[in-house]
Write a structure and sequence with these properties.
The complex is a heterodimer of chains A (75) and B (287).
Chain A lengths: L1 H10 L4 E6 L2 E6 L11 H13 L4 E5 L13
Chain B lengths: L3 H8 L2 H17 L2 E5 L3 H14 L4 E7 L5 H13 L4 E5 L6 H4 L5 H20 L3 E3 L12 H9 L4 H4 L4 H10 L25 H16 L6 E6 L2 E6 L4 H4 L4 H10 L5 E5 L7 H5 L6
Parallel strand pairs in B: 1-2, 1-4, 2-3, 6-7
Antiparallel strand pairs in B: 5-6
Classes of the chains: A alpha+beta (75), B alpha/beta (287).
Chain lengths: 75, 287
């Protein structure tokens, strides 16, 4: 489910990795959250829609800058 | 200058005033009442109406103080009671020491409220107060509230709900009565930030309280929750604040703020604040 969700996000133009914590999908931009430009409402709605299609009710954006690869990440 | 009653009738839906009169009648019929008081929107309004309907000798507001209640919340409740001449007593409740509560099952609130009412009923008897009441309103019946079962089992009355008063009506009426709580966001206990199944500990409650305080210090207003996911803090803000807090650089400010409370990582919920978020996550209630 995670890899399909991640693929769908990438396909929609959101290059990121996905980790799941207590059923929350946490996404981190490939290039680092701190270098990503602002995320407008339309982009958030699109991501939330894709998440719903993959069974996630909660999606959050990683804020911690320059994180190493996510320990719970399942490619 | 128009009378207060005329002003209320001018600016307030008539239905709310009718319900308020019903509430006053119900409180008078009680004779005397002890109110489980949190300093939130509902119990503050109920306490004020009981004070007006019964007088200060026939009512008592009791605040249960515990690590799951932020310090600022009980201090605010104390100030509010003083400002409106509401008799207030603060008692320590030890729900965190109850292993059934600390295990954090989906019905955690049942155990918390059981401890609270078990503490408050003897106080009511000692004070000679006939009825113990809480601030549940007419909207609460639509939500998942295991705490309501504990209240029902203990014989707690809910005069606001009995009078059919909704949250919105209580806010309008509170404003008319000069209660500062009228625009106050809902403030459920800190344990509501910890996912079901993750034990409620003093350390985690303290982390959440410090993280939310640090975020408030950044100027964040309105609804705010820090959900505890171990080393990861998930921040929920009102949706209309997301655009600005997702601007470059602001995410780091949020991360630093919750980092000061001991969270190694931070994330921002892309949908924003929603009441009962962890209930939705666990499938306990619908989106």
């Amino acid at each position: 489910m995670i890899s399909e969700f991640e693929e769908a996000l990438r396909g929609a133009g959101f290059p990121c990795r996905v980790e799941v914590r207590e059923k929350v999908a946490v996404i981190a931009w490939d290039e680092g959250a701190d270098r990503r430009p602002a995320m407008p409402r339309e982009s958030r709605d699109r991501i939330l829609g894709i998440a719903r299609d993959h069974g996630f009710t909660h999606v959050a954006l990683e804020l911690t800058p320059q994180r190493a690869p996510l320990p719970g990440h399942h490619p | 200058m128009p009378s207060f009653r005329v002003m209320m009738q001018t600016f307030m839906p008539g239905a709310a005033l009718v319900k308020e009169q019903d509430l006053v009648d119900r409180l008078r019929a009680c004779g005397s009442v002890l109110i489980g008081f949190s300093g939130g929107v509902d119990s503050s309004y109920l306490a004020l109406m009981a004070r007006k309907a019964l007088g200060r000798r026939s009512m008592l507001a009791v605040l249960g103080r515990s690590p799951s209640v932020p310090d600022e919340q009980w201090r605010h409740a104390d100030r509010l009671a003083g400002a409106h001449d509401i008799p207030l007593r603060i008692v320590e409740t030890g729900e965190v020491a109850d292993s059934r509560y600390a295990a954090n099952p989906v019905n955690r609130c049942y155990y918390c409220k059981s401890v609270l009412w078990t503490t408050l009923f003897p106080l009511a008897r000692e004070a000679g107060l006939a009825v113990v009441a809480d601030g549940s309103n007419a909207d609460d019946a639509n939500e998942y509230r295991p705490g309501a079962r504990a209240a029902a089992e203990a014989g707690v009355r809910s005069p606001l709900a009995e009078a059919g008063l909704t949250k919105e009506e209580i806010r309008v009426l509170s404003r008319a009565h000069g209660l500062s709580t009228w625009s106050q966001p809902s403030s459920p206990c800190l344990a509501s930030r910890i996912p079901y199944g993750m034990p409620v500990t003093m350390e985690r409650l303290g982390q959440v309280e410090r993280a939310e305080s640090a975020l408030r210090d950044l100027g964040i207003t309105g609804n705010l929750r820090v959900r505890h996911h171990g080393d990861l803090a998930r921040i929920e803000l009102d949706p209309d604040l997301l655009d600005s807090w997702l601007l470059p650089g602001n995410g780091e400010r949020l991360a630093r703020a919750v980092g000061s409370a001991g969270f190694a990582r931070a994330c921002l919920d892309l949908r924003g604040f929603r009441s009962g978020s962890l209930n939705v996550l666990e499938g306990v209630s619908a989106e």
